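User: Could you go from structure to sequence for me? I need the amino acid at each position, not a summary. Structure tokens:
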């Protein structure tokens, strides 16, 4: 039974998902003696959280409720417990919800831990406590304050104007406050933590057109956007242009003076050219985090996940927001982006599943092509560019990425993949 995708458990909220939350609680509660629980701002998050807490308490686990809190905040305070559980569907639409399981250092549960949970649920091997062993759930009200105190230690006063768009997600409660506290003038956009937003929760270029307009109108130095649970950050420069994730990663790495950088197989080849020691993993922040725990100064992926090991091994869009504000206080963000090497990079997707990938692999094996890198999906490296085809971890889609030294070649590689996939469906 496979319950976990690349970012925990996700699904449209229904009876099965709420029941699964209860079973996850029973399973985790039987393995870990103290667990802290947080939730995002979705309308279904209370229902999911109380089902989960019921399971934890039935298993006799000492359970703490941190309330509505961003994922990076929950990850940070999980150091005081044996595990943390976040109720969120991250950047998925509002009808979805999900569960992220966290270790004391903020990293996501690894493969072996996830397997253990899946096995317990599939075999219904739960241990319910007797009534005498059960306790009540304890409130844990200080999570956000504790996190803010830690983050503020890393920053001096910054005098810039920033527009913050939290997509009405849970970062609304933290990012505007932290930026104001370090001296920024903050204009809040979609910062009412209702869970419903005029824009879609994923902080992509197409979803942030309004933020870009507001940045220009307000004469702001920067625009900052989060997803629903605040573990992602996307940035708009002072001219209203979206900064691609690959370039933002390079800006962070340079600003932090990084030597060893961990990123995913779908990030730009420009990263290697900047002189960092680069280690590449499968796509998914949990894989970056896993590798970073073995050693590294900073980790990230182009989707907008940034991991700072000095805080935790969880992607932290809020700390990243303060870091990018610090950067914008030193120089215009657009000028810093212009200094970076840049190659045409195309990203897209078509409908398909893992069987499409199997057929594609067989097809490529039968024709002459460069050696296939299977770290994640199929990656082909050519002299003048590369191509990546992989099944999405959260949706029934096949994602295609192509980068080359010229636009024409990038399009050629991209179209080659799309055509091959269409023939394999
Ligand atoms: Mg997220």
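Assistant: Here is the amino acid at each position, in order:
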């Amino acid at each position: 039974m496979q319950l976990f995708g690349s970012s925990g458990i996700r699904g449209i909220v229904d009876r099965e998902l709420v029941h699964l939350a209860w079973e996850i609680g029973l399973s985790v509660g039987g393995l870990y003696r103290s667990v802290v629980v947080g939730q995002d701002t979705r309308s279904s998050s209370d229902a999911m959280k109380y089902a989960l807490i019921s399971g934890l308490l039935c298993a006799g686990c000492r359970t703490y409720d941190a309330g509505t809190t961003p994922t990076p905040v929950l990850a940070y305070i999980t150091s005081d417990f044996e595990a943390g559980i976040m109720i969120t569907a991250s950047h998925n639409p509002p009808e979805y919800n999900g569960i992220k399981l966290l270790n004391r250092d903020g990293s996501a549960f690894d493969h072996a831990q996830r397997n253990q949970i899946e096995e317990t649920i599939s075999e219904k091997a739960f241990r319910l406590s007797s009534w005498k062993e059960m306790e009540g759930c304890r409130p844990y009200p200080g999570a956000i304050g504790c996190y803010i105190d830690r983050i503020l230690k890393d920053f001096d006063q910054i005098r810039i104007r920033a527009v913050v768009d939290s997509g009405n997600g849970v970062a609304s409660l933290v990012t505007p406050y932290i930026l104001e506290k370090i001296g920024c003038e903050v204009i809040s956009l979609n910062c009412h933590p209702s869970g419903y937003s005029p824009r879609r929760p994923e902080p992509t270029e197409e979803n942030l057109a309004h933020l870009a307009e507001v940045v220009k109108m307000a004469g702001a130095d920067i625009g900052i956007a989060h997803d629903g649970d605040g573990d992602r950050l996307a940035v708009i420069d002072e001219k209203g242009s979206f900064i691609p994730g690959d370039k933002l990663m390079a800006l962070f790495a340079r600003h932090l003076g990084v030597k060893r950088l961990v990123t995913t197989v779908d990030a730009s080849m420009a990263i290697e050219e900047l002189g960092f020691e680069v280690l590449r993993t499968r796509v998914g922040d949990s894989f970056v985090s896993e590798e970073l725990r073995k050693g590294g100064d900073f980790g990230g992926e182009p989707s907008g996940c940034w991991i700072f090991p000095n805080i935790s091994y969880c992607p932290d869009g809020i700390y990243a927001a303060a870091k990018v504000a610090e950067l914008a206080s030193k120089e215009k963000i657009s000028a810093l982006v212009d200094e970076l090497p840049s190659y045409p990079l195309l990203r897209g997707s078509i409908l398909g599943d893992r069987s499409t990938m199997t057929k594609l692999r067989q097809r490529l094996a039968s024709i002459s092509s460069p050696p296939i890198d299977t770290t994640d999906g199929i990656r082909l490296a050519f002299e003048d560019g590369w191509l990546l085809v992989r099944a999405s971890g959260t949706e029934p889609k096949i994602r295609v990425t192509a980068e080359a030294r010229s636009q024409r070649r990038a399009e050629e590689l991209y179209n080659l993949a799309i055509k091959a996939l269409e023939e394999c469906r």
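One structural detail worth keeping in mind: DSSP finds 14 helices and 19 strands in the chain.
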